[in-house]
Amino acid sequence: MSHNRREFLKHSSALAGSAVAASFVTPAVASGASLTADATHAPRLSRRTAKPKLTLRFRPYTLELKHVFTIATSSRTTTPVVLTEVEYDGVVGYGEASMPPYLGESHASVLDFLSRVDLSKYDNPFDLDTILHDVDAITSGNTAAKASVDIALHDLLGRMMRQPWYNIWGFNPAKTPYTSFTIGIDTAEVVRQKTKEAAEYGVLKVKLGRDTDKMMIETIRSVTDKPITADVNQGWKDRAAALDMLAWLKERNVVMVEQPLPKEQVDDLAWLTERSPLPIIGDEGVQRLTDIPHAKGVYHGINIKLMKCTGMREAHKMIVLARSLGMKVMLGCMTETSCAISAASHLSPMVDWADLDGALLISNDVYDGTQVVGGKVTLRDWPGIGVRPLKG
Length: 392
What we know:
Elements: H1 3-12, H2 27-30, E1 55-70, E2 75-88, E3 91-98, H3 107-114, H4 128-137, H5 143-161, H6 165-169, E4 180-183, H7 188-197, E5 203-207, H8 213-221, E6 228-231, H9 239-250, E7 254-258, H10 266-275, E8 280-282, H11 292-295, E9 301-304, H12 306-309, H13 312-324, E10 328-331, H14 338-345, E11 353-354, E12 367-368, E13 371-373, E14 376-378, E15 388-389
Parallel strand pairs: 4-5, 5-6, 6-7, 7-8, 8-9, 9-10, 10-11
Antiparallel strand pairs: 1-2, 2-3, 12-15, 13-14
Helix pairs in contact: 3-5, 4-5, 7-8, 9-10
């Protein structure tokens, strides 16, 4: 067992806030098989007796939110996640699956999926196209579970190369955007309090989609005049009323709107996008790479999230394709630890807007990684995705 692995287990066992068991398991253990010598990784030896193998480990965890988080369709105080590790030749990479309710994934579904992932059969950990294609092909859906493997593999390879991913991709870390800070639907008193707490952030993201929409905006405007992005989460239904609301929002320095209508109302969304005074960004309506050609003309741009699109590799491809079609790009997140946030942050120099505040909304993060300094996404110069497990 490597030093990194011993330290991770030592500290992770003491972490508070988990609603489930804290020990990592391998796919073999999760599927009921006995733990064999292949399920752990021996320290690197000066005279190798066997070729190293990729090993996947994972454990469930529960994120505790600092405030009740309410959107147009639901409220919650926790988010289930699964933390992953991929080890090769004594080097460990970290990943994560976050499962907000609308994705349809859960601790049980992610653990079941990961129990079917066998990384030990791949000789070359750098063969990401093959490995991630095979992981994706195990079954449909399960995008967050797939992202947890993708992120851990990227972290592993970056650590093996001793380079952060922004260097590997050739991005300038100084060109990261400012992130918005999300304010969920709430009473005027709580919205006012949250707005004051977000004073260091230059952009606010506001959840809309209920009959309190104008109250939400007016309450924030009673505190600050900083730019706002609005996320309706499919909460509006009528396109004419939506167009009127967009004009009202523009007058109050709202700069763009995510998913104003249900994703199934494609014709109404195209009608609205053609007439909108603000950029319309597809979120629930754009999940993966194959959705982008169909989104052209329906939205002005897309919101890419690692948990929707299976991870960093496909997210990078989505940005390139969207740009080639002349579409705007937003990089978003779920409620996540600093692990998944850091992974997404390495793509942020490529995008128009960033909403990477997921780790700022929780009280029991388990990693140190990307920071927000003066509202700006600030990448670490650590190798891989730039994270370290926090000490308990």
